[in-house]
Every structure is written in C-alpha cells, then in structure tokens.
User: Fold this.
Amino acid sequence: MRRGAILNNRYIGALLLAPFIIFIFLGGYFLKYGILALSLLGLYEFYKVVKTKDIHPLNIFSYTLCIIYYFFLNTDYSMTFVIPIIFIFVFVSFCIPIINTNYNFIDIAITILGFLYVPVMFSFIPSVEASKGGKYLVWFIFISAWLCDIFAYYFGKYLGNKKLCPKVSPKKTIVGSLGGILGSTLGCTLLGIYSNSQSLSIPIYNYILIGLLCGVFCQFGDLFASSIKRYVGVKDYSHLIPGHGGILDRFDSILFAGTVVYYYITFILVI
Assistant:
C-alpha cells in the first residue's frame, strides 16, 4: 500500500506539472510569466529552507526585484534595464546590514545567491525561446535534463555500483552519470536532426556538444541542489508537487541546462 501510495502521488504530481508543457508550446508571454511564477515559488522554497540555519534573507526585497526583472526581460528595454537592475539589487543589499544590524553579510550573500540561482537562471528559458529558432531550441533545455535524469537513474540502478559523490548524493553512481551524459547527448542529437528538418540549419556537431555539456552540467545542477538540502537537513525543498518535492527539486537540472543552452547559442552559435 505504501509503495502504491507513493506511485499514485508521483502520478498526481506529474499531472500537476503537465500544464507547464503547454506554456512551452505557447511560448512568448505565456512562457515568460509562467517562468516568473515558478521563479517566485522557487525563491520562496530556497529562502524557507535556509532559514533552518538561522539565516534571514531579504525575502520581500528579492521577490519585488524578481517581478521587475521579468517585466523588462526580453523587451526593447532589456539591455537598458536588466543588468542595472541586478547591479542595483546587489549594491543596495550591501547597504542593508549598515542600516539594519539585524541582518549580516551572510543574510545578504544568501539573498543575492537565491536571486541569481532561481530567477536569473530560470530566465534563460524564456530568453532561449525568444531567440531565433527559439521554439525549437527551448526544447533542448528540457529534453537534455529529462533524458539525463532518466538514463542516469536506470543506468545507475541496473549497472552502477561505484558511487559518484557519496557525501553529497549517496545514491548516484559513476555509471549512472555516464548514462545521463549519453541520454542527454542522444536526445539533443535526435532533436537537432528534427529541428534542422523543420527550419533550423545548425551543424549537427553543435547539437552533440550541447547534449554533452548539458549532460554534465545537469548533474552538477542536481548535485548542487542536493548539497544545499544536505547542508540544511531537508529531504525536499517543499511538498508542493506530490511525489516530486518542490519546484527546485524538479527543476534543479533544468536551471543548469537552460544556462548552458543560452550561453552556447549566444556566444558559440551567435543566434
């Protein structure tokens, strides 16, 4: 019964996540503000768990800046306001411990880390979608992360034995990690072939490289999230999604994949 209940919860959680797929297909403002909602929820989860270590981030300040940041993201004013917004946020944060001594530099550092880790890294998803050929390229973020997780799980379960990072995530194995890289590379290559058959004309080796890079860094994303949870002593960031944990539990790999894809297409493909 207990195993059945867990499986049922995972199915329910998957159904709750399913509408997000629609936002990816719709793109544009739907995806942008869908990601904003996820960013706010992710920020809430991050700041909530760090409070268990007597850290007091500037929640409201960060939530407000998150909304302003997304308002200007991918608009005609993006280059004019987005970078200054982040800099002003950091600059003003440095002044807070002087104005209010109830906060210290650790509180400020974690506030800034949370903003960069969640809203900024999430924002690479709508930024990729807004690029030339973005309706295809945005799927590389999700396909790489999903297949990396799936292949890593099954390779590790049936073939793995030697642990990858036992102090951070005891269940992950070296074979599982290699399987994750394989899954990401295979998925991105096949998706790339399909995308080229539709409208893109990017050399195939770029898709292979994107898959390899995402396969590596998706796992760093997973392990980074695990290291935070291990430090603060929680199993999941929240129980928002039954059987899956919280937003950051489900999107930890995707955050890193989005960063990889965005910077690859921006500085290597120059799209």
